[in-house]
Amino acid sequence: SIAKLENLDIKKLREITNLVESSNIEEIKLEVEGVKISINNPKFRLPEQGTRKEEEPEPAEKKSGDLVEIKSPIVGTFYSASSSDSSPFVNIGKSDLFRLFIPEEYEGMGTGIFEVCLATEELSRGDLSVATSYAASGLGLIPILVAGNEEQKKKYLPQLASGEKLAAFGLTEAEAGSDAGSIRTTASKDGDFYILNGTKQWITNGGEADIYTIFAMTNPEKGVRGASAIIVEKGTEG
């Protein structure tokens, strides 16, 4: 049977998830405003190495029809968002999914990586490209969350939490990706500003984001420790 809820409450969803994980329930199914959600107990998953311990039961076969179909109520409206919307992700923003990345003091929900992974996984069932953009926006805001000053956090994080703005993580270059220390983009101080010089490529949300965290060398003498993340707003001169 499927338990039906009147609205999508992330905190309530987290409580239910914790309950499932602490019990011997293998799976629980919910329906929220026509959206079907399946929460699986990790105890019943196969170990990462691909072998099953004798004391662990075989995981039940999962069928795609039993899984979340967010495409219709959320992802479907992503493509039909009107031109007056401040962001094409306004519909996902209304579902509060962007708030999962961000602490409560900056208008987020202060949840953990599990909830973010759950949201990304379920969005991908509807449309992988939307899920990728969603996850990339979370990646783009991490430098602000980890290293930004209080003024920067208060300015940018609430906008990203609401889905009003989309973020991008600007690291990859032609000769630098996983080897982040090889970036050639530079940022030199010029009065109250930094002047960026360089080229980035393969940046998810690169053409759609409103807030970019661009990695550049600000002190080449320090080698890999001489890199900084520069916040660049869409429309900045250059």
UniProtKB/TrEMBL annotation:
PROSITE patterns according to UniProt: ACYL_COA_DH_1 (PS00072)
Biased composition (Basic and acidic residues): 50-65
Residue intervals of the Acyl-CoA dehydrogenase/oxidase N-terminal domain: 91-164
Species: marine sediment metagenome
Limits of the Acyl-CoA oxidase/dehydrogenase middle domain: 168-238
SUPFAM superfamilies linked: Acyl-CoA dehydrogenase NM domain-like
GO molecular function (one): acyl-CoA dehydrogenase activity
Region (Disordered): 46-65
Protein name per UniProt: Acyl-CoA oxidase/dehydrogenase middle domain-containing protein
InterPro entries on file: Acyl-CoA_DH_CS, Acyl-CoA_Oxase/DH_mid-dom, Acyl-CoA_Oxase/DH_mid-dom_sf, AcylCoA_DH/ox_N, AcylCoA_DH/ox_N_sf, AcylCoA_DH/oxidase_NM_dom_sf
